[in-house]
Amino acid sequence: DQQVKQNSPSLSVQEGRISILNCDYTNSMFDYFLWYKKYPAEGPTFLISISSIKDKNEDGRFTVFLNKSAKHLSLHIVPSQPGDSAVYFCAASPTGTASKLTFGTGTRLQVTL
Amino acid sequence: EAGVAQSPRYKIIEKRQSVAFWCNPISGHATLYWYQQILGQGPKLLIQFQNNGVVDDSQLPKDRFSAERLKGVDSTLKIQPAKLEDSAVYLCASSLGGAGSNIQYFGAGTRLSVL
User: Fold this and answer.
1) In sequence order, what are the residues at sequence separation of 6 or more whose Cβ sits closer than 8 angstroms to the Cβ of residue A76?
2) Mean per-residue pLDDT of chain B
3) Hey, are the CB atoms on B108 and A41 less than 8 Å from each other?
């Protein structure tokens, strides 16, 4: 069963606009959430995280929003840049830390000029 | 600071053969993970080590997969015998361990093709 779902396999956004990537989860024990970015032929790279005690975390152009009641989180990238083109994975953990991760299937973001 | 090193980068074998992957984590990282990423899916945790002890191997197919981290540093993951469905990218990750967020840092992976 897919406990972490990313229902959009791909997303195309113009440079300078906002990119919004979505993630849903089913396991109510998840209490720590992360986004990873992956370029071709490289391993995933940590981007941003959020604990379940918060509903928003911001780091530069990247903001993650968490809606616990809806079991939904989203990643906002503003403004989007061509270098942001990559596959983005949502991940969740029940341990309060980044250990024991369950990953979603990923969303491929393409930022066009 | 050097990242997580994995080798080989690519491996092609025939079914029923054996294969081994090697991982060298970031220096000082106590926790080491092996993941399997099948095409079109997210990484799936196979095994987690804390130093040289196994913390979680609940998703490791133990009839054919084995892993070890003998001195608490490098690790090897072995598949014997391989099946067609083992074709995937095998990712190694490491984290500091202990208290804190324990962000995992990934290597570039080994792409395995089983023919």
Assistant:
1) A18, A19, A20, A62, A63, A64, A65
2) 94
3) yes
